[in-house]
């Protein structure tokens, strides 16, 4: 039996961490009963209060998923037509793979570009997180820095997820589309992880070409908006704040910003692949942090 003094010392050591065995049960019961006696609010119990954030005008910031310092104006002057001409066998494999994957996507979505954008962003947000995780683990294993690449790749994943949050305001997924996303995510996450383990230069090249296809899709989206086949509704509030857009912006302005983001992702991933192709590691060349 543990003495109450010893048990108390253990609880101080383990804090909120989960441990296995009887101590877990004891800790949960103890904390639960204490929490109930003091307050029903986890905020009060843990003494962690959400930070209050104001925008530049001093108004309350209503978004919890991003802060004013995460907002930016997309650089829409970036070259949309830039293309990495495949030279090596690896480049050709990457380009061919993406072209093959586009085929079923075109058939499934056809000209439903709002839905297409929402669904494709669920895939586009995966590679940055996988690559960032891979580099994170590598950094730990080798006791070395990453040259800022972990943060850059996680920034990309976050940016793609913000695209998804934006398009969720424009188009809601149906039950079978949610099921498709779960299936595709399971397959794509594992496939991309395997690709990254096997060849980071192939993995980044694949994403470079995927982003080129994303630019093409958003260009088609803009054409449909311009010819009136898709209604140019007001921009969602989340998009106006995230991209610092004027208050009267429309869906078209949002798509222009998103397309510019994709062009930046294209450049970052082709750049990363080129570094590997030169026989270097990413950490040898400073990452393009905050490249929008
Ligand atoms: Fe995206
Ligand atoms: Fe992208």
Automatic annotation (TrEMBL):
<dbReference type="GO" id="GO:0005743">
    <property type="term" value="C:mitochondrial inner membrane"/>
</dbReference>
<dbReference type="Pfam" id="PF01786">
    <property type="entry name" value="AOX"/>
</dbReference>
<keyword id="KW-0249">Electron transport</keyword>
<dbReference type="GO" id="GO:0009916">
    <property type="term" value="F:alternative oxidase activity"/>
</dbReference>
<dbReference type="GO" id="GO:0106292">
    <property type="term" value="F:superoxide-generating NADPH oxidase activity"/>
</dbReference>
<dbReference type="InterPro" id="IPR038659">
    <property type="entry name" value="AOX_sf"/>
</dbReference>
<keyword id="KW-0560">Oxidoreductase</keyword>
<keyword id="KW-0999">Mitochondrion inner membrane</keyword>
<comment type="similarity">
    <text>Belongs to the alternative oxidase family.</text>
</comment>
<protein>
    <recommendedName>
        <fullName>Ubiquinol oxidase</fullName>
        <ecNumber>1.10.3.11</ecNumber>
    </recommendedName>
</protein>
<dbReference type="GO" id="GO:0010230">
    <property type="term" value="P:alternative respiration"/>
</dbReference>
<dbReference type="GO" id="GO:0102721">
    <property type="term" value="F:ubiquinol:oxygen oxidoreductase activity"/>
</dbReference>
<dbReference type="GO" id="GO:0046872">
    <property type="term" value="F:metal ion binding"/>
</dbReference>
<keyword id="KW-0679">Respiratory chain</keyword>
<keyword id="KW-0809">Transit peptide</keyword>
<keyword id="KW-0408">Iron</keyword>
<dbReference type="GO" id="GO:0098803">
    <property type="term" value="C:respiratory chain complex"/>
</dbReference>
<keyword id="KW-0479">Metal-binding</keyword>
<keyword id="KW-0496">Mitochondrion</keyword>
<keyword id="KW-0472">Membrane</keyword>
<keyword id="KW-1133">Transmembrane helix</keyword>
<keyword id="KW-0813">Transport</keyword>
<comment type="subunit">
    <text>Homodimer; disulfide-linked.</text>
</comment>
<dbReference type="GO" id="GO:0005739">
    <property type="term" value="C:mitochondrion"/>
</dbReference>
<keyword id="KW-0812">Transmembrane</keyword>
<dbReference type="InterPro" id="IPR002680">
    <property type="entry name" value="AOX"/>
</dbReference>
């Amino acid at each position: 039996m543990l003495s109450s003094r010893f048990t108390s010392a253990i609880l101080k050591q383990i804090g909120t961490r989960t441990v296995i065995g009887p101590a877990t049960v004891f800790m949960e019961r103890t904390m639960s009963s204490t929490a109930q006696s003091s307050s029903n609010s986890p905020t009060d119990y843990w003494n962690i209060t959400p930070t209050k954030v104001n925008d530049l005008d001093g108004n309350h910031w209503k978004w919890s998923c991003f802060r004013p310092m995460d907002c930016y104006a997309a650089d829409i002057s970036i070259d949309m037509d830039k293309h990495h001409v495949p030279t090596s066998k690896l480049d050709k494999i990457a380009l061919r793979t993406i072209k093959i994957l586009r085929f079923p996507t075109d058939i499934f979505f056809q000209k439903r570009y709002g839905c297409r954008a929402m669904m494709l962003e669920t895939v586009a947000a995966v590679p940055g997180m996988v690559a960032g995780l891979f580099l994170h683990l590598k950094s730990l294993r080798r006791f070395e820095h990453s040259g800022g690449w972990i943060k850059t790749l996680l920034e990309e994943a976050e940016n793609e997820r913000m695209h998804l949050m934006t398009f969720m305001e424009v188009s809601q997924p149906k039950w079978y589309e949610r099921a498709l996303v779960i299936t595709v995510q399971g397959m794509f996450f594992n496939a991309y992880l395997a690709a990254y383990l096997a060849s980071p230069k192939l993995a980044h090249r694949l994403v470079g070409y995927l982003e080129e296809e994303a630019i093409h899709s958003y260009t088609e989206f803009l054409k449909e908006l311009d010819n009136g086949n898709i209604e140019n509704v007001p921009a969602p509030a989340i998009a106006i704040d995230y991209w610092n857009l004027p208050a009267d912006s429309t869906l078209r302005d949002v798509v222009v910003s998103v397309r510019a983001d994709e062009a930046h992702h294209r450049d970052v991933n082709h750049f990363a692949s080129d570094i590997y192709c030169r026989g270097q590691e990413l950490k040898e060349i400073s990452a393009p942090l905050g490249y929008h």
